[in-house]
Design brief:
222 residues, mainly alpha, Arc Repressor Mutant, subunit A, 3-stranded antiparallel β-sheet, 3% strand, GntR_C, transcription
Length: 222
């Protein structure tokens, strides 16, 4: 993890740094997270580390223990499906309620994101693809100005992204499919076809779940 340079609060930066390390798989499931070591690695005191760990626990990424270091939360198939169920409800509601508020600037940013997704796929850079994928959904989550809704969608995306990290060898197949589904959603939004955009989002999220279940079953049977 990179040492922190103070721009935003130390707790926010510690939160983001540790979260990124968990999502990227640099911190393994059930790995201990001693406050003293994290503070040393990030070049800050233990107080913002403690606050960051509490926030990560609230997102389901970290488990806090009494008299023992916190640990990275374990990943399970059921937990990923639970995240996915909630993610569907939130993201579909967001499109249904807020698609009419989509500005030209946001559409421009979504197009830029799609270009980044395609470049990542063509470069076989699937870590970058996952970053673009998550950013794509968060760009849509913010169109209605409901900060809490956007935060919840972010949390659910984090849980689902961890599921696909477990199945990272499947990304060369699933990434292209996801990209094309994203393209279709943006095209519908550009045409102001909200109902079509909603149906395409439903199809996309259903396919994300199907891909996960298909590949997870394959991993279990190896």
């Amino acid at each position: 993890m990179k040492k922190i340079i103070q721009k935003e609060s130390l707790a926010d930066q510690a939160f983001n740094s540790i979260k990124d390390a968990i999502i990227a798989g640099r911190l393994a499931q059930e790995e201990e997270l001693p406050e003293e070591k994290l503070a040393s690695d990030l070049g800050i005191s233990r107080t913002p580390i403690r606050e960051a760990l509490k926030r990560l626990a609230a997102e389901g990424l970290v488990n806090i223990h009494k008299a023992k270091p916190a640990t990275v939360a374990s990943f399970t198939k059921d937990s990923a499906l639970h995240y996915m169920e909630i993610r569907k409800l939130l993201e579909i509601h967001n499109i249904e309620k807020n698609a009419d508020q989509l500005s030209d600037q946001v559409l421009y940013e979504l197009q830029n994101n799609l270009e980044g997704q395609l470049e990542a796929i063509e470069s076989d850079d699937y870590n970058s693809f996952m970053d673009f994928d998550r950013a794509f959904h968060l760009q849509l989550a913010n169109i209605g100005g409901n900060v809490k809704l956007a935060e919840l969608i972010s949390q659910m995306n984090t849980g689902v992204n961890r599921a696909f990290l477990f199945l990272s060898n499947t990304l060369p197949v699933s990434a292209k499919d996801a990209y094309l589904e994203h393209v279709n959603i943006v095209q519908a939004l550009e045409k102001k076809e909200k109902n079509l955009a909603k149906q395409l989002m439903i199809l996309h999220l259903d396919n994300v779940e199907k891909r996960f279940l298909h590949y997870y079953t394959g991993e279990e049977n190896k």
